[in-house]
Design a protein that fits this description.
Length: about 80
């Protein structure tokens, strides 16, 4: 599997959770917007369009999806060194 394919697969996998969670909460997010937001958060090539006001929630959900594992691991590392 090439690097581009691996990157796309990663973005697809990472977008599944926020899409599913939002759907359970009764809100349907646009898959392409979620994936684009995840790409931007990861610093990967993504479209340079401005985020529309209605897509700002998508951007926030995606940002939480990216930061949650980092925050959790930082907390665990901090408590382990105490």
């Amino acid at each position: 599997m090439g690097e581009d394919e691996c990157t796309q697969l990663t973005v697809e996998v990472m977008s599944t959770e926020p899409l599913t969670t939002s759907e359970i909460e009764g809100e349907i997010l646009d898959r392409a917007s979620v994936q684009s937001s995840i790409q931007r958060q990861l610093g990967l090539a993504a479209d340079n369009r401005r985020v529309a006001p209605r897509e700002q929630r998508t951007a926030r959900v995606s940002a939480m999806r990216i930061s949650a594992p980092r925050t959790s691991s930082e907390q665990l590392e901090g408590s382990a060194s105490s």
